[in-house]
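re: ur question from yesterday

yeah so i grabbed the chain u mentioned. its 303 aa long if i counted rite. heres the sequnce exactly as i have it in my notes:
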Amino acid sequence: MNSAIIFNNVSCKIDKKIILDRISFNINEGEITGILGPNGAGKSTLLSLINGLRNQTNGSITLLGQELPAKGKIREHIGVVLQETALYEELTIFENLSFSASLYNVPNPAERIMEVLDLLKLRNRSDQTVRTLSGGLRRRVAIARALLHNPELLIIDEPTLGVDSETRHSIWLYLRLLRSKGVTIIIATNYLDEVQALCNSVVVLREGRLIAFESPDALVAKSGYCIDLECGKEECKKIKEILTSEGTVLCTEESPSGLSIFIENNSAQEPIISLVLKSNLIESFRVRAPDLAEVFKALEERI
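ran it thru and got these structure tokens back, copy pasting raw so excuse formatting
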């Protein structure tokens, strides 16, 4: 499989401050990769390097076969959707896309506009003024605009920011469809479930450092699946004693409602749950994947 993006020991300084520190990873063509990290981790700077808005201080970046900064018109092969949609409020959806198509010299613009409107289920709204659109519809229009020139690489900062659950899953559907057509997609997100639903691989940043680059399943496995127990403090102590001999338990953490048990993998949940239920010390339980904060914590403990 060919590489769409290669970062080789890349660092970036802004005003003498190190924002990214010796980052290396390789993203394959036709895959979706997530960029995860808390605020200040360097996600926005990383995206700026990929789309050519900023140059690295050290290291090399290869994008779609060209080393950056590229001499050719590489931006013609990239579509970008920022957090702010930057649409013209007083224009219709069609007029917004027509203007963007003219900037990219899109051939047969009217036909291509209707193609992307069909893809994002917006054809029947083409004459609607942007100011009347919901946040989710604006997001879809912004994605449509980024697709007009048939980019090989699509970069989206927070693809489902501020949208409702139904729209969120619709956007996921469109992104999977684009992947099936061979488009390489980079998404920066703060949602672990979004990464699990969409991504082939994940870049995890913390204070400008790369702390993980792997599949979502491998990322979740590092912190372990979680069993949340509802019980009292005394019961927590007894349950922790019961679990001391269980090798699949990574760690336990007390919570306001009881105890959280982190296990190595999802298949280990049944024997642990069975053991806890036999103790008659809990009121209820639920099994879940770890949240983003728990993943970051687990990764940092392994650095």
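noticed a couple things. Residues 3-214 form a domain with the Rossmann fold fold (CATH 3.40.50.300). also The longest helix spans residues 165-180.
anyway ttyl
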